[in-house]
Write a structure and sequence with these properties.
The protein is α+β, with helices and mostly antiparallel strands and 177 residues long. 21% of the residues lie in helices and 29% in strands.
């Protein structure tokens, strides 16, 4: 398997992966919106290949913390793997490669709204109890789906606030888990 940064020429394949993974247009729509959104920049977009076939994609976009804090934040999402390539570790490898790139570029915290049993395997912890509110309220029964990972030690416990996402994600439908 090969994982590399996405190129403009990968867009059709990325959208195909998103549609297959999410059984429709939602993931593809989010990716297209984020790619054209200046408030999402800088982004990290990675693709995974098996035998020259695009099988996975991960996207990280910029976020900020209110009240304004001197931190670099990113939101993971969407993460997509085509159904016939799931449960082979592709998603995990995409997450780890993305976190490595973000860490090297100076990102302090990475947030995700996702499966509360999947993302903790990669170091994510429930963000609400650590003082980080999501952009939109999340029902209490899904509170653990809002997670954070500290890429620079000493941030958690010293900062708290509301995470403000890119304009493209500023829609309550994207904050349901």
């Amino acid at each position: 398997m090969i994982i590399r940064k996405a190129l403009d020429s990968d867009l059709d394949d990325i959208l195909s992966v998103e549609r297959a993974a999410f059984d429709g247009e939602d993931g593809a729509e989010i990716v297209q919106k984020l790619l054209g959104d200046d408030s999402a920049q800088p982004i990290v977009s990675l693709v995974a290949f098996q035998e020259n076939r695009t099988v996975g994609h991960i996207f990280f976009s910029r976020a900020t913390l209110e009240p304004n804090a001197p931190l670099s934040l990113s939101i993971l999402g969407p993460l997509a793997v085509v159904p016939d390539a799931q449960r082979q570790g592709i998603g995990g490898k995409l997450i780890q490669k993305g976190l490595d790139i973000l860490s090297e570029s100076g990102v302090d915290l990475v947030f995700v709204l996702g499966h509360s049993t999947y993302y903790p395997r990669f170091g994510f912890k429930p963000a609400g109890n650590l003082g980080f509110e999501p952009h939109y309220p999340i029902p209490e029964k899904n509170a653990d789906a809002w997670m954070v990972q500290e890429l620079r030690p000493g941030i958690i416990g010293n900062f708290r606030g509301k995470v403000i996402c890119a304009d493209s994600l500023d829609d309550p439908q994207y904050w349901e888990e």
